[in-house]
Design a protein that fits this description.
The protein is built from 29 helices and eight strands. By secondary structure, the chain is mainly alpha-helical. It folds into four domains: 217 residues, Fumarate Reductase Cytochrome B subunit (Up-down Bundle), CATH 1.20.950.20; 134 residues, Fumarate Reductase Iron-sulfur Protein, Chain B, domain 2 (Orthogonal Bundle), CATH 1.10.1060; 142 residues, Rossmann fold (3-Layer(aba) Sandwich); 113 residues, Rossmann fold. The strands form two sheets. A four-stranded parallel sheet has the order 2-1-3-4. A four-stranded parallel sheet has the order 6-5-7-8, sandwiched between helices. The chain is elongated, with a radius of gyration of 31 Å.
């Protein structure tokens, strides 16, 4: 085993003071440039409004560490994921090796000797360098030869990849020259460097010495350039993505920021200017690596709508880079003892601006930076956020901009006006009289909480289950199953109002607040503790949104509840489906919002179905097109999303399509009807299927 590091046996003398001064001077310059660019970015993030993302520091820290070490989300797409893993761990290993060498060479702390030198500094570092080069070559292939869909190639990307590739190659050439020049007896432990050394045998000692010195300085100089360029270029995502993981929302997935509609000091609601986003929103625009995974899984983008989640963040980032410096330069520091108001800030910012600068400040966020069509194309399916390896939050930004458009500008699609009015006047999107909400219950003799105040569960059929003719059949199936299982339940009847999910996702926070507050007061008045829902949108609102307004309940979705009844033996399948092929469509608000994937499939299998999966399934499920209030809006651009999803289901050659959401059921039922397959392909909710097989 080597008693000291063979790296000390350099072919040229680095012990000279001038050379070390130059080396460290270059490093300090590079580090200073890096810090300068980082600080400039940091100041831009500070333009945003405050937001507390600093709670639960321990949990946040370990979540970030786990994400860094495992690359779990990045590896969902194996090709690009492995490429990224190779580059990341290659750079980490080489960074550690460089740091240890500096510690030993300059601080005379002997570390690199014996087994540790052979196993880490020789073998693992060589493997790390090779991994880096392979990863970079794969990246070059994907970007410039294969031209992978979703990737956009900017000049800085080519510069960065070339820089890293040359750093890796010159590192191995330096290693090979060292091995051949010192006749290193342990050379075989550096396999890549050893192979390079074989190519260099036969050169004279002076030639080796001269080439080694030149390549060493080229290698070091390029490394310093990389350090200087780091915070300016895309590579900063190595820090920003872990930061984004650390600062991810601690709320349940999909929960929107609370807006106090009773705040008398509030001058505006939602976002109409870049600086009205939070600092985390603005950080997201810099953390975006333009990988294209979001748009490759966005139903709006794939159906030809004018929305790309990637371009949304990039457009906001471009606006940040043009507007941010103007705001920072124009706004003077706050004087001690003075109170800032919107008026004084506006005066300070706009003073002494050029006409061009003022035009940038006056540029409307919605309409110029982000088009109205882009804003309203979103189904809030959350697929962009689920697939994003940088943990960016696209959907909340869209809803914040919608909120301003609706509440402050009254600017929204015309058909939304009728939906809002119907919810406000009759407590449901169809505008059917509120006093007929419990008509379905009279036919089935279902009790209300007035009649059955001791009921264990409040059954919440939702607007679709109460009013929509197709979805009333799901409600009937649920009542049959619960009665068969002996479940003690009751309903609110006409006192139940729309949960407000569509209103909130369309940006009408005030209407959502009114509906939610009324529902919460009603349920709290009855002492409701447990709720069964059959609509994922109701489930998500009652479970995750209502606690912001004081509505805290144990909410269970019917897929979970029915699976529990089967497991507990409270219901039994007596007439199984005998292997009928059924494909299951994951509702976005059940799956990506609440991680309920297995229970619906378990129910179908218990019914005797042969469950076949669509190409896009689970957390990559394709939206039906109805979320985010799109159920009530016209779809007149591009392909119809529900038809695309129906075609994906038909492609499985299943005899039936199942789901666990009334919106999805409606959209898929309509899609099958358009394809004129309603006689051969049955579209049903899981509750209907289960009710049929329990006798």
């Amino acid at each position: 085993m080597p008693e000291t590091s063979p790296h000390r046996e350099l072919m040229w003398n680095m012990d000279g003071i001038p050379e070390r001064i130059v080396l460290y001077l270059l490093f300090l310059i590079a580090a200073g440039i890096c810090i300068y660019f980082f600080y400039k970015r940091y100041k831009l993030w500070r333009i945003g409004t405050p937001e507390n993302r600093f709670n639960d520091k321990g949990a946040r820290f370990w979540a970030a560490i786990k994400y860094i070490l495992t690359h779990k989300k990045i590896l969902r797409e194996s090709g690009s994921g492995i490429m990224h893993l190779l580059i990341f761990w290659g750079m980490v290993v080489l960074f550690i090796a460089t740091a240890l060498t500096v510690v030993q060479e300059d601080f005379r702390i002997v570390i690199l000797y014996g087994p540790f030198y052979l196993y880490f500094m020789a073998l693992i570092v060589d493997i790390g360098g090779l991994a880096l080069i392979i990863g970079i070559l794969v990246a070059i292939y994907r970007r410039y030869l294969k031209k992978t869909e979703g990737l956009d190639n900017k000049p800085e990307d080519a510069i960065l990849l070339t820089l890293l590739l040359v750093i890796g190659l010159t590192g191995f050439f330096t290693e090979g020259l060292r091995i051949v020049g010192t006749n290193d007896p342990w050379a075989i432990w550096s396999p890549i460097g050893y192979v390079v050394s074989l190519l260099l045998t036969g050169l004279s000692e002076s030639t080796i010495l001269g080439i080694h010195k030149v390549i060493w300085w080229v290698h070091g100089g390029l490394a310093f350039i990389f350090i200087a360029y780091f915070a300016y270029a895309k590579m900063l995502h190595m820090l920003l993505i872990p930061a984004n993981v650390y600062f991810q929302s601690a709320e349940p997935k999909g929960v929107l920021p609370y807006i106090d509609m009773e705040d008398e000091d509030a001058e505006t609601f939602g976002v109409s200017k870049l600086e009205e986003f939070t600092w985390k929103d603005i950080l997201d625009t810099d953390a975006c690596v333009r990988c294209g995974r979001c748009q490759n899984n966005c139903p709006a983008y794939l159906s030809g709508k004018p929305l790309s989640p990637k371009e949304l963040l990039q457009d906001l980032n471009a606006h940040l880079k043009e507007k941010g410096p103007i705001l920072l330069a124009a706004k003077p520091p706050k004087k001690s003892g003075t109170e800032e108001t919107a008026e004084t800030v506006e005066t300070a910012v706009t003073a002494h601006l050029t006409e061009a600068q003022q035009a940038i400040l006056d540029k409307p966020l919605v309409g110029d930076v982000i088009s109205e069509e882009t804003l309203w194309a979103c189904t809030t399916c959350r697929s962009c956020m689920e697939q994003c390896p940088a943990m960016n939050e696209h959907v909340p930004k869209i809803i914040k901009m919608r909120t301003y458009q609706v509440l402050m500008e009254s600017n929204f699609p015309p058909e939304a006006q009728l939906t809002f009015r119907n919810m406000e006047n009759n407590g449901n999107p169809w505008g059917i009289g509120w006093q007929t909400r419990d008509s379905w219950a009279a036919e089935l003799d279902v009790k209300t909480l007035d009649e059955e105040p001791e009921a264990e569960y409040l059954y919440w059929p939702g607007c679709s289950g109460a009013y929509d003719a197709r979805n009333k059949r799901v409600t009937t199936a649920m009542v049959k199953i619960m009665r068969s299982a002996g479940v003690n339940f009751a309903i609110l009847g006409n006192a139940e109002k729309c949960c407000g999910d569509s209103a909130r996702r369309m940006g009408n926070e005030f209407l959502y607040y009114s509906l939610a507050q009324e529902n919460i007061e009603t349920m709290n008045g009855y002492g409701v503790k447990k709720i069964i829902t059959q609509c994922p949108h109701c489930f998500n609102a009652l479970k995750n949104d209502y606690p912001q307004l004081g509505g805290n309940y144990e909410v269970i979705q019917h897929a979970q509840f029915l699976e529990q009844l089967l497991k507990q033996g409270k219901i039994k399948v007596t007439q199984p489906m005998q292997g009928t092929k059924v494909t299951y469509h994951d509702s976005c608000y059940l799956g990506r919002y609440n991680d309920i994937y297995d229970e619906p499939r378990a129910i179908l299998r218990a019914c005797g179905a042969n469950v076949v999966e669509m190409e896009r399934t689970g957390d990559k499920s394709f939206c039906c097109g109805a979320g985010g209030g799109r159920m009530w809006l016209e779809e007149n651009i591009g392909e119809r999303i529900n038809q695309m999803r129906t075609d994906q289901a038909i492609a499985t050659h299943a005899e039936g399509i199942s789901t666990a959401c009334p919106f999805c059921l409606t959209m898929l039922f309509d899609g099958v009807k358009v394809r004129e397959l309603e006689q051969t392909v049955k579209t049903r909710d899981i509750a209907e299927i289960l009710a049929d097989v329990i006798g």
